[in-house]
Amino acid sequence: MAILELDKVSKSFGAVKVIGDLSFQVPDHSVFGFIGKNGAGKTTTMKMILGFLQQDSGVIHVCGEKVSYGNTKANRNIGYLPDVPEFYGYMNPKEYLKLCGEITGLKKEIIQSRTKELLELVGLDGVNRRIHGFSRGMKQRLGIAQALLNEPKLLICDEPTSALDPMGRKEILDILSLAKNKTTILFSTHILSDVERICDRIGVLNQGKLVLEGDVSDIKHKYRKDTVRVEVGKSFQPEKAADGLRKLTAVTNVRTDNRIIEIQVHNAEDSGADILAFLLKEAVPVIRYEIMEPSLENVFLQVVV
Amino acid sequence: MVIFMRGFLAFTKKEFLEQLRTYKWLIFLAVFFLFGLMSPLLAKLTPDILSSMDMGGIQLNLPEPTVMDAYSQYFKNMTQMGVVVVLLVFGSILSNELIKGTLVNILAKGMSRTAVLLSKYTAAVILWSAGFLLSAATNYGYTVYLFKNASVPNLMFSMFCLWLFGCFIIALILLSSVAAAGSFGGLILSAVTLIILLMVNIFPKAEKFNPVTLVSKNTALLNGTNKAGDLYLTVAMTTTLIAVCIITAVLLFKKKQI
């Protein structure tokens, strides 16, 4: 079953079309990476899902329930972590979660037990200071706690790691990986290494359209371009070998850069022998020889640019 | 309805905590306590202060201060400085949250926007009422103490008019904060509206319908220049305007992009 369903959603701000005919589904218990450049329309889409912005056309369903603008009823199934979550600085984390729980209508005992559990999960247990002294990372972690408080079926995170240092990023990703056992996550970002770490599925948004969508491993496989990368010794001019390599039948393209030769082939494993034989014959001083794995970054650049 | 009440109660509690922890209650109650204390004292001491000054040989014959002087001093303070204090303390209760984005988490949890506005109105009116009662009680007690005889006609009604005007300002602030953008948009729009209402009273025909009349006739009610009945229409008008402000604010807020 799809937890989130967008059907031909469009949105313009004045004359600028931000989202055009966007359709996608997020299946139950998956982590969906919503990828796009800054300004691609990720936050706009999320705000429409939450009913904070009105779409010009199209329908959004959350857990089978239609989202309508200004009415936040469908939001009881959603936990939302804004890119920079803001809290009431005069409260401490426990008081804030209590307020959130009361608004959602959780019972007193449940609020208490969930608060304890979640503050432990995000590493803020025992922090009784007021929130106004919190660092960005701490606020982000409290943001996750408040988003998970009502055990939402869908957790929406808007660039949760973008403003954090490497330590903070790792912590947030670890928490999200734990959360994915319990809920479906829609995770927007432009940091592709984060996506590779925790997402099952991705959708790449460019100029208001989904230009690529699917399973992460499928996509990597599909966009696989076999490339062999050879690093040569200092004394050797890579251009010297390049011409000879181009003549090999299996090779489609050769690029040189400083001490690196990048060779594109039809099938890296099969044509490896030809390349190695050539390198041996020409007595090229090889420092490193590797078959490149396609990274999401390459895929991203390919579909977006 | 249950969801609405739940949100309303939780958020009103949060508003009270905010007043407490940001020291709004302290500032508010202290200022209004001072107004109540100073007004009768100043009325009592004014002749002494003036006669103690060297007036260059000019003889000043001032009449003995009366209870009426004490009350007119009180109403002057409350309707001028008091209004400014209300504007400053409550002017950003909504704008602040909209600018900072603190409402995003709350609304994302399915909290009703109507409940947010009503909570803010309720909590602000309660603090205003507390400050008002404190100043009124202090003023009354001290006036009785200093002037022995403190009974004047229409005192309760005149006080009520002042209180109702405060409630009107708070409703106006909420509407202005939804309508105008920025941290001070709501505050400025409210102040400008009040100034316009003040100018409208130049036309005698408009007086009866203008909330501002509630705070310009207080002394006239006490000395008998105006009867209570003269202001009944204004009270009804102001009550209606409070409701109109809140309902319009709710409708606009529902359509506001967060």
UniProtKB/TrEMBL annotation, chain A:
One MF term in the entry's GO annotations: ATP binding
Keywords, sorted A to Z: ATP-binding, Nucleotide-binding, Transport
PROSITE patterns cross-referenced by the UniProt entry: ABC_TRANSPORTER_2
Domain ABC transporter: 4-232
Stated family: Belongs to the ABC transporter superfamily.
PANTHER family for this protein: ABC TRANSPORTER, ATP-BINDING PROTEIN (PTHR43335)
Record protein name field: ABC-2 type transport system ATP-binding protein
Organism, scientific name: Anaerocolumna xylanovorans DSM 12503
UniProtKB/TrEMBL annotation, chain B:
The organism's place on the tree of life at top rank: Bacteria
Name of this chain's protein: ABC-2 type transport system permease protein
Transmembrane segments: 74-94, 115-135, 155-175, 182-203, 231-253
Organism placement in taxonomy: Bacteria, Bacillati, Bacillota, Clostridia, Lachnospirales
Keywords recorded for this protein, A-Z: Membrane, Transmembrane, Transmembrane helix
